[in-house]
Design brief:
There is one protein chain. The protein has 7 helices and 11 strands. By secondary structure, it is of the alpha+beta class. Strands 2, 3, 5, 6, 7, 8, 10 and 11 form an 8-stranded mixed sheet that branches. It has a 3-stranded antiparallel sheet with strand order 1-9-4. It is globular and about 60 Å long. The N terminus is likely disordered.
């Protein structure tokens, strides 16, 4: 089901049947039987459905959006093959703290807000660098006579694989609060009480931290970053606004999964890592999560203020 059907908003357009960046995964994900559909836009792909030609400017504009990329999938699949098993403690934490459920919701909402589009929704859902980049790109796509639509709304994604995670102390999801990397002294540390390894960042000057900060409910010094590979029949696609109806060439087969590499981050208290028992009534974390990168559009989204201007 398309999101505009869901919201009863009819949009006229013709879908580019090449399906920009679509990478399908047939059979089981763990067997990684990759079926490459069409790759990203290229200037050579000038002819699309019904003999339509699009300009190089439209190609370049559409390519600013973080469509799936096979090179990323292959790169991270290699990482999966080589990575060490996740510690039992973190497996239990991710499961019993309902992290997978939270990430599923965020992934679905990301597709919805891109398709509507909803700048405010993206601003709440994504770290501000990513939100601004996406809003600007989607706006330009619409100005060039195109749009983005969502197909196959999926509540629970068939595959959500955690590729890697890391923990930092005294850094924020909001990069504007972190300043420059050179302002910090970095040491290897661990989360108090559980021995989980992390990197501790302490400002060389003007360090405002205090031992009694742990008593502040809003003090959340630990930044948990998770990189995931998500495969789902839900996907985004490009369409033209100046044609009636949707092209029959649009591939809407729910058996074909589209794979994206998504990075999530959250600031939490150290005590949250201890909430690993499968008990009800734990404080929800959902609205504290942010998507901080999508298909490497921000090259991992540097935690500090420098080295990002050219990507924005």
């Amino acid at each position: 089901m398309c999101i505009r059907d869901r919201y009863q908003r009819r949009v006229h357009g013709i879908v580019i049947y090449i399906m920009i960046g679509r990478v399908g995964l047939r059979a089981k994900f763990l067997n990684m039987n990759i079926v490459a559909q069409a790759m990203r836009f290229s200037v050579a792909d000038q002819k699309f459905a019904q003999g339509r030609k699009i300009s190089k400017l439209q190609v370049d504009t559409a390519n600013e959006f973080p469509w799936p990329q096979q090179r990323l999938i292959e790169k991270h699949w290699q990482e999966i093959q080589e990575k060490k098993p996740m510690p039992t403690f973190m497996k239990t934490f991710f499961k019993n703290r309902e992290i997978y459920d939270d990430l599923n919701i965020l992934y679905r909402e990301f597709h919805q807000w891109c398709a509507l589009p909803d700048d405010e929704g993206l601003s709440v859902l994504c770290e501000q660098r990513l939100a601004k980049k996406l809003s600007k790109t989607i706006r330009q796509i619409h100005l060039k006579g195109m749009g983005i639509e969502m197909a196959n709304l999926t509540v629970k994604q068939p595959v959500l694989e955690i590729l890697s995670y890391d923990v930092s102390r005294n850094l924020h999801v909001d990069r504007s609060k972190n300043g420059k990397e050179k302002d910090y002294q970095v040491v290897d540390d661990s989360v108090f009480g559980i021995g989980l390894k992390c990197k501790a960042y302490t400002r060389k000057e003007d360090d405002k931290s205090h031992p009694l900060d742990v008593l502040d409910y809003m003090h959340k010094p630990y930044l948990l970053r998770i990189k995931t590979m998500i495969s789902s029949p839900m996907h985004l696609y490009l369409y033209f606004k100046d044609e009636l109806g949707l092209s029959e060439h649009h591939q809407n087969d729910p058996s074909i999964l589209t794979t994206n590499i998504v990075q999530f981050e959250i600031n939490i208290k150290g005590s949250e890592f201890m909430r690993i028992l499968p008990l009800e009534l734990k404080p929800p974390l959902l609205r504290d999560w942010r998507i901080t990168d999508f298909n490497d559009i921000l090259k991992g989204n540097n935690l500090f203020q420098e080295q990002m201007t050219k990507l924005l």
